[in-house]
Specification:
Number of domains of chain C: 2
CATH architecture of chain B: Orthogonal Bundle
Distance between the termini of chain C: 35 Å
Chains: A mainly alpha (about 280), B mainly alpha (about 270), C alpha+beta (about 350)
Structural class of chain B: mainly alpha
Distance between the termini of chain B: 12 Å
CATH class of chain B: Mainly Alpha
Mean pLDDT of chain C: 91
Number of strands of chain C: 21
Largest sheet of chain B: none
Order of helices and strands of chain B: HHHHHHHHHHHHH
Helix content of chain B: over 70%
Shape of chain B: globular
CATH class of the largest domain in chain C: Alpha Beta
Largest interface: A-B, 87 and 101 residues
Strand order of the largest sheet of chain C: 6-7-8-3-9-10
CATH superfamily of chain B: MetI-like
CATH topology of chain B: MetI-like fold
Number of strands of chain B: 0
CATH topology of the largest domain in chain C: Rossmann fold
Largest sheet of chain C: 6 strands, mixed
Order of helices and strands of chain C: EEEHEEEHHHEHEHEEHHEEEEEEEEEEE
Shape of chain C: elongated
CATH superfamily of the largest domain in chain C: P-loop containing nucleotide triphosphate hydrolases
Strand content of chain B: under 5%
Oligomer: heterotrimer
CATH architecture of the largest domain in chain C: 3-Layer(aba) Sandwich
Structural class of chain C: alpha+beta
Strand content of chain C: 35-45%
Chain lengths: ~280, ~270, ~350
Amino acid sequence: MTRIDRRRRVLPGFGLSLGVALTYVAIIIILPLIAMGIQTTSLGWDAFWRIITSDRAVATYRVTLSAAGLATLFNAGFGLLMAWVLVRYRFPGRRLLDALVDLPFALPTAVAGITLVTLFGPNGWYGSLLEPLGIKVAYAPLGIAVAMAFTSIPFVIRTVQPVLEDIAPDIEEAARSLGARPWQIFGYVIWPLILPAFLAGSTLAFARSLGEFGAVIFIAGNLPFQTEVTSLLIYIRLDEFDYPAAAALASVLLVAAFVLLLVTNSIQIWAMRHARTD
Amino acid sequence: MHAPTEPRHYLLIGLAMAVSAIFLVVPLVSIFAVAFSRGWEVYLGNIIEPATLHAIWLTVLAALVCVPINTVFGIAVAWAVSRYDFRGRRLLISVIEVPFSVSPIVAGVTYLFLYGTQGLFGPALQAAGIQIMFTVWAIFLVSLFVTAPFVARELIPLMQAQGSEDEEAAISLGASGWQTFRLVTLPNIRWALLYGAVLTNARVMGEFGAVSVVSGNIRGQTNTLPLQVELLFNDFNTVGAFAAASTLAFIALVTLIVKYALELREGT
Amino acid sequence: MSIRIENVTRVFGDFPAVRNLTLEIEAGELLALLGPSGSGKTTLLRMIAGLDFPDSGRILLDGEDATGLGAGERRIGFVFQHYALFRHMTVRDNVDFGLRVMPRAARPSRAERQAWVMELLERVGLAHLAGRFPAQLSGGQRQRVALARALAIRPRVLLLDEPFGALDAAVRKDLRRWLRNLHVEVPVTTVFVTHDQEEALDVANRVVVMNAGRIEQVGEPREVDAAPASPFMYRFLGHANRLSVEVVGDGVRLGNRLIDAARVDIAPGVPEGPAEAYVRAHEVVLVPPSDPRADMTARLVHSMARGGLLRLEFVGADGELFEAEIPREDCEDLALARDEIVGLHLRRMHIFPKGHG
């Protein structure tokens, strides 16, 4: 290794670019994470455990996980549908629809939050239709799921879409020529190919939903034990200057994010194994 | 890709369009509908309200600071990981992705524990009389964190796919490193770079969770536009909130249009 | 300019791409580096260019140590396999690039540059396409733009990496002739890499055959083709048959038949006993199976006519495949049918130690 490092590099700028990159990553990304790690570990295990297993905290996990789960289910279905429709069919407005998919990424979460709560509120365009039916969205657990679903719409679509585009038409034709019916072609030929991307996209959507704050707080109602998400509880603890509690709860979200990142990466490595054969 | 022929094709397209309309089109339209619900004059009045105007200025300032810095960083890191092989290269690529998967609230908390009074650097900063938390500096820093991956994410796959032959050709023809970058690399990556910068810009201007932790919410001083939207909304000034929000929605639309235009260019 | 490569080694991870290689290239040569993929030929070319650097050993240009010089300091024209044309520049700007980036003091005036660029484009026959972008050109045209661009800096050496690799057969042939002519007009030292022996033998003045990071054989095309020096060379040049034989004195035994020294050349250091014989397809003569000249018999399984030659495939007694290439008129009198048993007379056998290479 040392020999290669001493070797001249053909393209100039190795030291400069890597130096800039590492310094920046260290200062902007790693240092703050270390600071939080220190803050959390200084709590001691007992205090840490007491905070993260307090009734109120556990209630936020339940609310967050169930809403994120619901949002991800919605996005798994809708994402698959959108990816399929955008890749397979030519119809008026297709490009526009394709461009619109990225709206939740481009639109600030606070804007999404006030828009959704206004739409789903009792006097809103949607709320005024739903509430007479007994469906309460704003200031209810369902609202949290709606906000999470909105902000993570693009993930499944944008991971499945390119894989679907890459499937050569001839393998479907081959399946058809062998007598497969449309649902068999989808089940035996296409589904296995898009499954890794679909799972990776769903995991990303779930991870994003777990941490979502801006869109959720406007629509949630924020009642402890009922409609309070974990990220909001962190914010409340900060507001109360209860920094140790904020640190402990933030580390729970951080660990969850890293675990999900690991899951996504593993799925992608698994998918690469598939990809290498073509 | 083909035109729909069977009833089930139309059913799928119709379903996709209906759900998109409910969850994407109507919300977008409603922002402007509410913002303009009391007419142009009220709208303009809301925008030029001093606190909102100041929030717009602060938001633009954050973008002016963060977009160039993260663009330079994105180029540097993409150049390093796509042009050289070195130990820890994969790790570096993963670490850059971290801000993308961290909750905005957690991002804000990490910065609080670094620069806040009880944070790692808190005592030292306090002794030196430097205040970072709850000032614009904290907003800049946390925005840099949140948007660090955007340019790099656009550039790395592109530069890896392009390979280094063009740069090697330039070098073998006697070009200096800077000439190679300016005359060969930059033109090759300019569209991805532009898109990365536009995405960074949208996120810097729209970041809410992380900024609300570190800004301290001092009205008229450290309120960015998304925080101002929250403030107005919580004050039951719905139309004012949506007027402020409409400027951010406009930025989002511009972002989508840029992406759309760049994809048309590529002919995909 | 002359090039001297001295004990150069280059290792990628644990893969030795070039192993302790020494080679002298004289000024004005048109040299081919020939070898299968992974033989280290491109790595060697890139090290000459300064696009890669040896782990040990030296590279001398005109007698001066250039090992540590970067590509930009060597004044070498390099033509990349996929051309590496700058896609956002016109043909004219591509060719002008090397002049444009010169330090101000050394840079020719705009008018001089323009004249020189047009002269080069004239020479490669693309003056009429000067305003086009690379994407608007055919493969052969791009190749010639890449060449003009490399020549623009008046390089001391021209290096080409698989110059015909990405082109279709007809264009390749044209470009080969054209490159030969160009070397006559612009007699700059030229080294090109190829995996195609026909290309190397056709274009180069001298051929260096590489295998597994080492030089297998060096010589003029005619020599290399006429006298392959190793089993690798026979396999690489192709259309060679391998037989198990036994060395007996200065002859060999093939099956029950003794073949005397007149038809056998034994490589130095082959001991008595089991050995390997290589027989090239054109060194096989067809005879009736009962003919006393028949060294072995075999069954015809396939024949293909190609120009004046007939290419025949046989299966021998042990089931091994055997290839022969004979002038068409020689078989007019032999009525050949599939599955017919024929006698094979081997005009020449080249003997190497068993299990070598």
